[in-house]
Design goal:
By secondary structure, this protein is of the alpha/beta class. It has eight helices and ten strands. The strands form three sheets. Strands 4-5-1-6-7-8 form a six-stranded mixed beta sheet. Helix 2 crosses helix 7 and helix 3 runs parallel beside helix 4.
Length: 308
Amino acid sequence: MSPEKDKPTSASPDPTFDGDMERDILILVVGDAGAGKSYFINRLLSAIGSEKEASEGHKLAIEGGTRTIEPILIEEKDWLKRYIRITMGQQRFIVVDTPGLDVTNPTTTAQRFADWMKRSFPGPLDHAHVLVGGVVYLHDISQSRIRKMTHLNLLALRNSLGEHLPWSSVVLVTTKWKYADEKVNAKAAELREEHWNLLLKSGDPNEVANVRDFKAGTPKEEEAAALDIIQPILKRVEVWMERGAMETLQQVQGLFQGMHVKNQLFTQQLSGALEKAVGIHGQISAVGVRLQGSRRQCVGGRVETTGE
């Protein structure tokens, strides 16, 4: 089979999203190639209680090559109750493993993701049933050089979503600490103060990104760290859930209010109809009396009343 026949068309839907869905919540995991995205996702899945693993998945043809975007559906439900007070209906969490960021063009990854989203979710991204909960950006702290395009990559990604994603729902994560040299702490400080500073300084708390370190440890320690990393995203999800609950409550209240108004209108109409019926009955009675009077006839000087 030729390579062209192997490539899915731009209209091909992602099979992960087959079937009915009430609410889908996406967590995007992005970063340079080799930053440890799949490893982080697998630790997160293990912490949640899922047996799934991030692996080579759905291929997207981009400029003659292939890039992998792999959505992983989290079917487990109980873990979410530990972090979110309100849940609405049947929601699904989907962790999206993305290709390595383009080191030369910050818009390439954003466009690739936007194309994938349009295929997977044909409706608008700000629809009540779909939420991009947040973004986890992974940076390999062991690398000797620090790229200066993180802000531009994340800004392009955020602009591609079609809705406002606050920086507070973005988590900047350093990885590969065990492979770093003795200058690792200095490099971590440099990241915060020089390369990530635009994302960390704002008068609005909603526009300040979060920073976490994902360090090697025991499986349980790494699972706990993975869960801690997504906490800012879960806060956004909880606000979204609360807003959805309030909207549903308002709709129910509006429905009952409408029923009450309709009942009041029906009562008024019924009362008016009864009053009208009583009036008509009185008019009919008066006419009957007059008819009876007209049936009296004078016969031979006598007044004779006809039989009824």
